[in-house]
Amino acid sequence: ATRLSGGENRPVSLPLSRIRVIMKSSPEVSSINQDALFLTAKATELFVQYLASYSYKHGRGKEKNALTYSDLSHTAEECETFQFLADILPKKILASKYLRMLEKEKQDGQVGKDNGEDEEEEDEEAVDEGVG
User: Fold this and answer.
1) Of the listed ranges 17-21, 37-41, 116-120, the one predicted with least confidence
2) Taking the CA of residue 46 as centre, how many other CA atoms within 13 Å lie in the half-sphere pointing to its CB?
3) Which candidate, 8, 16, 12, places its Cα nearest to that of 42?
4) Which domains does the chain have, with CATH numbers?
5) Residue 24: partners with Cβ closer than 8 Å, 6 or more residues away
6) How many angstroms separate the CA atoms of 103 and 122, rounded?
7) Are 92 and 73 in contact (CB under 8 A)?
8) Hey, which of 27-36, 87-96, 100-109 has the most confident mean pLDDT?
9) Closest CA to 32 of 11, 16, 10
10) Residue 125: how many CB atoms within 10 A of its CB?
11) What is the C-alpha to C-alpha distance for residues 76 and 70, in angstroms, rounded to an integer?
12) Biggest distance spanned by C-alpha atoms of the chain
């Protein structure tokens, strides 16, 4: 199962010990067969290669002759196959833009609370008027 391809020294590039640790972190896994470990490592490598090549081909990487994080995040957001990675590869935003978003949410929350309090006061007044 440890065939070498293309004159490589190692059958897989990813460290098998780290993959074993990740696999054992699942409570359902008690032992890991060496073949299953190798196949998981190889499948992971192939997946990463596919993600990188797809992102390069469909992103701006061709223009710059480079694969960028934004290419990967765009692929995760736009391609249905990779949408499960959208939380792991979010689009980058500037800190200043993020702070403005937080400030806006905070203001919107205050406005919502203020409106809610006003409505409660109006409801109490309506009840008082109806009783008297």
Assistant:
1) 116-120
2) 7
3) 12
4) 16-108 (1.10.20.10)
5) 32
6) 29
7) yes
8) 27-36
9) 16
10) 10
11) 10
12) 93
Cα-based angle 20, 35, 82 (whole degrees, multiple of 5): 65
Tokens linked to 64: 């710059």
CA 15 to chain centre: 23
Q: Distance between CA atoms of 83 and 87, rounded to whole angstroms? A: 8
pLDDT at 5 over 50: no
Q: Which residue has the tokens 């190889």?
A: 42
Contact 41, 21 (CB under 8 A): no
Which residue's structure tokens are 């692929």? 75
Task: State pLDDT tens for residues 100-111.
Answer: 888 888 888 776
Long-range pairs of 123-132 with CB within 8 A, sequence gap ≥ 24: none
Q: What is the pTM of this model?
A: 0.60
The band of 4, judged by pLDDT with boundaries at 50, 70 and 90, is: very low
